[in-house]
Structure formats: structure tokens, C-alpha cells
Prior knowledge:
This protein is an alpha/beta fold. It folds into 2 domains: 5-78, Double Stranded RNA Binding Domain, CATH 3.30.160.70; 91-184, Winged helix-like DNA-binding domain superfamily/Winged helix DNA-binding domain (Arc Repressor Mutant, subunit A, Orthogonal Bundle). Helix content is 33%, strand content 14%. The protein has 6 helices and 6 strands, in the order E-E-E-H-E-H-H-E-H-H-E-H. It has helices at 35-45, 56-69, 91-100, 111-117, 124-132, 160-170, and strands spanning 5-11, 14-21, 24-29, 50-51, 109-110, 145-146. The strands form 2 sheets. Strands 3-2-1-4 form a 4-stranded mixed beta sheet. The protein has a two-stranded parallel sheet with strand order 5-6. Helix 4 (111-117) packs across helix 5. It is globular and about 40 Å long. The two termini are 31 Å apart.
Amino acid sequence: MSEAGFHLFDTDIGRCAIAWSERGVAAVQLPEASDAETRGRVVRRVPHAVAAEPPPALEHAVEGMVDLLAGRRSPAAELAWVELDLRGVPEFERTVYEVARTVPAGETVTYGDIARRLGDRGASRAVGQALGRNPWPLIVPCHRVLAASGSLGGFSASGGRALKLRILQIERARGLPVASLFDFDEPPCG
């Protein structure tokens, strides 16, 4: 991968985008209200990216995300193999993302579980904040991280908690919280 680029692709939840650099995936954008908004968000994250077909390794990553969002459990859909461009990502966030990437489809953990795995039981809020800044949703599956109460917690993508619940339902995650109308009134936070 020599040049930065981005590509929009269709999934069962709408048009997503992937951006890359010579070091790996630089960003993933979940669907916005329009292609223009999705494109705008991914280009703001990777300003020097140009529209292009993804290189072969990233075509496989796109296939994995499409499979994941269609509920197919293919090897590509695991996404833990995808190389990320980690430039500028603080060390704490890197470790949070590494732990989150170990949570398989169909499983969930809490922000506190990740904090404990990092050796800092009091870091739950910092874990949530790091996941709220996650530039690689799906590849770093922040949607699989719930609040300690078992509620959905936050989700910073367009669609917020409703989208988080939808993705978890597609993955057939066990032990999902029963959502009420009030679960979706708060602004996304993570």
C-alpha cells in the first residue's frame, strides 16, 4: 500500500467506508445519512485520501466487514488479522483497542472487563472514552463492549445505541439487554 485512499462499500446496514495508508487501515466509517456524509467523515479522518479501489489485502477486509454485517461467520469476518495504521494513537488507547479486538463475534464484555484486563480496575471511564474515539469500528469491535449494568452503554457512530444493538443482533450476541425507548434518548458517548 503506497498511497492513501478510501472506498465506499455496501453492507446490510448501509454504505460504509474504509480508508487506508501505506501502514494499514487508517479509518472505517459506518453509514451516515448519505454517501456524501459518509465520504465527508472518512476524508476528515484521512484528509489526504483519494477515492480508489482498495488494494487486495483491504478488499479482503471489506469482504470481512460485509460478511460480519450480514451475520456470516467467515474467517474474513473475524477481522483481527487486519493491519491498522496506529500513527498518532496514544499508548493507552492502543492497548484498549488490542483488548477489544480479542472479543469474538457473538460475545460481549464490559468497559470494566477491559479495564481489569489492562490491570487498572478504575479505568472503566477511560476505556469508554478511548472506545468513543475508535477510528476503526467493526475492526476494533467497540460495539461488543457494554456498560457494567449490562445495558448498551454508548456508541459514537451515527445511529448511536440503536445501531450498536442492531449490529449485536446481527452477530447473534448472547445476553443482550432488553432495550426500552429511553435507552436511545441520550446522546452517544462511547
